[in-house]
Amino acid sequence: MSSDFQQVQDVLGNYQSAVYEKDVERFVSSYASDVHIYDCWENWECKGISNWREMVEGWFNGLKEEAINLKVAFEDVAVEENSNLAFVHCAVSFAAYNPSGEKLRQMINRFTFGLKKENGSWTITHEHSSLPISMETGKGIFNSK
């Protein structure tokens, strides 16, 4: 799937709606073929769109199995860009709802995106998500804001 993201905010909007709709192809359309991701979950890193697609398929399938609607919200978004490169950092809230609309859980991650413009469209070339770690327990802090 080829998408046209004229503005960096278009990429973030696609992320939100594709997660909510659990649309793998639309979600990965925001990413460069050689994307490099440092994610909070399981693997140290993910290199390349095919590996990322596999991770996303597992994530979305898990949401479908649990009958979860996941709403994504970007907070404290800072964007620096020039004509071909952009840098974004923000807090990303993931709130899970059951089919009747009851909120089940929520977590907030810190995200950094590196984007480049290819053929007039922004694509994510690097993504890094993180959580602060409690020095007392060694566990991630999921709602520190």
From TrEMBL:
Residue stretches making up the SnoaL-like domain = 8-133
Tell me, what's a Pfam family for it? SnoaL_3
The species is: Heyndrickxia acidicola
Q: What is this protein called?
A: Nuclear transport factor 2 family protein
Q: Which residues form a coiled coil?
A: none
